[in-house]
Amino acid sequence: MVLQSIRDRLTGILAFAILGILIVPFALVGVNEYFTTDGGNIVARINDVEISSNDFSQSYSNYRRRMQSIMGASFDPVEFDTLIARRAHLDSLIDQELITQAAQSMGLDVDDKTLAEEIRNIPAFQVDGQFNADVYQSRLLTQGLTPKQFQNEMRSQYVVNQLPRNISSSSIATPAELKSFVALLNQKRTVNVVLVPVESFEQAPEFSEEDINGWYEAHTDEFHSVEQVVIEYVELDAAFLPIGQAPEEDYLREQFESQKARFVTPEQRLVSHILLEIAADADDAVKETGRQLADELAKRVRDGEDFATLAIEYSQDQGSAAQGGDLGWLESGVMVQAFENAMYELSMESPISEPVQTGFGWHVIQLREIREASGMSFEEARMLLVQEYEEDEAARAFLEQADRLVDLIYEDPTTLEGAALDLELTVNEAGPFGRAGGDGVAANPDVVAAAFSDLVLLQGSVSDPVNLDENRLVMIRLKEHLPVALKPLDLVREEITSTLTDNLADEKARNKAEALLASFQTGEEDLETLAAGEELEYGRHESIGRNNFVPDSTLVKEIFRLNTPVEGETVQAVLPMTTGFATVELESVVDGAIEEGAVLAQQQYERILANSSASHEAWALMRQLRSAAVVEVYEDRIR
After folding, report:
1. Same domain, 506 and 548
2. Closest CA to 381 of 268, 254, 242
3. Residue 529 domain flag
4. Are residues 415 and 466 in the same domain?
5. Which residue in 148, 170, 271, 316 has its CB near the most CB atoms, within 10 A?
6. What is the DSSP track for 553-577?
C-alpha cells in the first residue's frame, strides 16, 4: 500500500528524483533499517526473535523464483500463490530459527581447521578439483564480501547444520529392525493370474438423456471452466529504441584509460609459503626463535630439499599447509605489503625468499612461476567500448521512455491507447489464459500475477510496469474476464458419454472377472482351464517381487496388499490392473532375508533404515523444540 500511495501522488521527473534520493541510503544500509519492526509488521515471533513481514515476503519471493527455476514449464504459479503454500514456507523459517536457537544454547561451534576444509571443498572455489585462492578471492569480491565476512557466514551456517547432522550420524538400525525390513522389502509371492482386459465395444452404447443428465448433475464440480482473462498490453523494449549518434573517439579513449584494469591483466605470480605463526605481542626472544627456524628452512630448500614437503611438516597456515603451502596465483593488492614486497623481489633464478615478517608471523616464500601482464590494446577494445556505449544509450533512452509511459498511463489509468499513440507503440492482446499462465507474455508469472491482481481485475486499471527482462517491460489492462462457470451440458455431452462408456466397459470386465472367480471357487476347474474356455490370458508367476511390472505393475501392487494365506490354503480375489481386472490366486508368501556374507547389501539396508530413523528423530526434535518454545503466528499477515 505504501508503494501504491507513492504511485498515486508522484509522476514524471519528480517521481524519479525522489526515488533516486531514496536509492542511495537504501543501498548503503539496507531496506530493513527503514522498516523498524513493530507489532503490525510481524508475521511470527519465536521466543524473542521476530520475523517481519518484509523478511517473510522477500524470503518467499526468493523461494518462488528458486522453485520456478527448478520446475521449469511444470511450475504452477497458482499453487505457489496460496495461503497454504505461504504458511508452509513460514513454518520452514520458524523451524530454521528454532534449530539456530537450539544450536546456540548448546554452545555448538566449529574449529578453524574444519571451517577451512569446508571452504576448500566448495566447488565454486576450485579449478580442476583443487582449491584456488585466486578464484576464492574473485568470487567473494563479486558478491561484495571479504574473506572474513564469508568465513563468519560459513561458521554460522555450519553450526546451525551441526544439530541435524549429528542426529543423522547417530541413527542406527537394530538387528530386529533390519530383519523385519528386509523380510518385507524382499518378500516374494507366487500367484496364478487370469487377465480380464477392458474391451472396446463393437458398437458404441447409447445412453438416455436421463443417464447423461444424472451424471452431469452428480458431477458438476468436474465441469467448471477455469477462471480466465484476456488482456491488452503495450511493450517497451530497449532493443527497439533508436541509439542516437555514434560515440566520439576521445570519449572512447577516456573510457579505455579509466577502465584499463578491465582490459589489461597485471603480472601474476604462482607462490607457495611456509608460515611460522608468531603472536603480535610475543617477546623478542620468541620472534628471534621463529626467524632462525624460518632462516633454516629457507637454507634447507636452497640446499635441495622439497619445499612442499617442508610446508606440510612445518607450516602453520591451515588453509595451505596440506597443499604444500600452495597459495595459487597472486597479484598486487592481494597480500599484506611486506609479503607482497618480498614476493616481487624474487625471480625464477632466485625463487626462495629470506624470512619475511608480517602480522601473522614469519614466512618463507617460494616463487614457482611468473605469468606476464597481458591484455587488449585500445584498438582491440574499441568494439567492446562502442557496444557498451550503445547499450548504455539504449538503457538511458529506455528509462526516459519508461518514465514517459508511466506518466501517460497514470494520467488516464483506464486505457492504453493514449500512451501507445504518443510513444508509437502497438497495443497487443494476449489470452484467454488462467492463473497457470499461457503463451507469449502470459508465460511470465509476474504478468499473470498482475493480470489477476485487484488493481487490474477488480479496479479495471492499467497495471504497474511489469519487467519481462532487463530494459524490457509491459503494462497491461484487462480486456475481458471469464469467471469460473459451470459448462453447459451440450458442451460436455461428448465427455460424459465417453466417461459412461469407459465405466460400462470397466463394469463389464469386473463382472467377467468375478464370474470367473465364482466358477473357480466351486472347485470344478482350475484357473488355467477356465481362462482357456474364455480365451483369456493365464499366467503362473513364481516368486515375484514388489518392483515387478509383469504381469502388470498396478496388479503387482494389489497382489502385495493381499493377506498371507493360511498354510494349506490359498487367497483368491478380483483385483484391478492398469486397464481392466484380474482373477488372482495367491499361493505362497516367502519373506526376504539377507544372504550370508552379503556385507555390502546389509550395509545398504542398514543405511536406508538409519536414514529413515534420522528423519523420524529430526521430526521428533522439531516437535520437542516447538513444544518448548513460545511461537506466535499472525495468520492475517501472511500474504
Report:
1. yes
2. 254
3. yes
4. yes
5. 271
6. HHHHHHHTTSPPPPTT--EEEEEEE
Residue 398, amino acid: F
Q: Per residue in 289-311, pLDDT tens?
A: 999 999 999 999 999 999 999 99
Q: Are 269 and 327 in contact (CB under 8 A)?
A: no
Among residues 482, 504, 527, the one where a domain terminates is 482
Provide the grid cell at 134: 585466486
| pLDDT (0 to 100) of residue 261 | 64
| Statement to judge: residues 533 and 582 lie in one domain | yes
CA distances from 161 to 95, 421, 460 (A): 12, 58, 49
How many other CB atoms sit within 10 Å of the CB of residue 328?
Answer: 21
Asked if the model's pLDDT at residue 10 lies above 70, the reply is no
For residues 414 and 477, membership in a common domain is answered with yes
Cα 391 off chain centre by:
31
Q: Which three cell numbers stand for residue 125?
A: 572455489
Percent helix, strand, coil in the chain, to 5, is 55, 20, 25
User: Quick one: CA dihedral 543, 547, 553, 555, positive or negative?
Assistant: positive
Beta bridge pairs of residue 197 = 580
Contacts of 180 (CB under 8 A, 6+ apart): none
Which among 393, 405, 400 has a CA at the least distance from the CA of 465?
A: 405
The yes-or-no verdict on residue 454 having pLDDT over 60 is: yes
pTM: 0.50
Do 297 and 364 reside in the same domain of the chain? yes
Domain extent for 25: 1-34
The letter for the amino acid at 150 is F
- Cα-trace Rg, the chain: 36
Q: CA 366, CA 630: separation in Å to the nearest integer?
A: 58
442, 460, 482: which is the final residue of a domain?
482
Q: Which long-range contacts (CB under 8 A, 24 or more apart) does 96-100 make?
A: 96/160, 97/46, 97/49, 97/51, 98/46, 98/622, 98/625, 98/626, 98/629, 98/631, 99/160, 99/163, 99/164, 99/622, 99/625, 100/160
Q: Are residues 241 and 384 in the same domain?
A: yes
- What CATH number does residue 338 fall under? 3.10.50.40
Q: Is the predicted pLDDT of residue 6 greater than 70, yes or no?
A: no
Q: Which three cell numbers stand for residue 618?
A: 529430526
Q: Which helix (H) or strand (E) holds 158?
A: helix 147-170
Beta strand 228-237 with 126-127 is: unpaired
Q: Based on the fold, state whether residues 403 and 461 are members of the same structural domain.
A: yes
Quick check: is 554 in a domain? Answer: yes
With respect to residue 331, please indicate whether it lies within any of the assigned structural domains: yes
**260: pLDDT confidence band, cut at 50, 70 and 90?**
low
For the chain, how many structural domains are there in total?
4
The answer for residues whose C-beta is within 8 angstroms of residue 192's C-beta and 6 or more apart is 526, 527, 528, 538, 539, 540, 541, 584, 585, 587
Cis? peptide before 432, omega within 30° of 0 = yes
Q: Report CA-CA distances (Å) from 559 to 88, 185, 579.
A: 36, 14, 16
Same domain, 274 and 365: yes
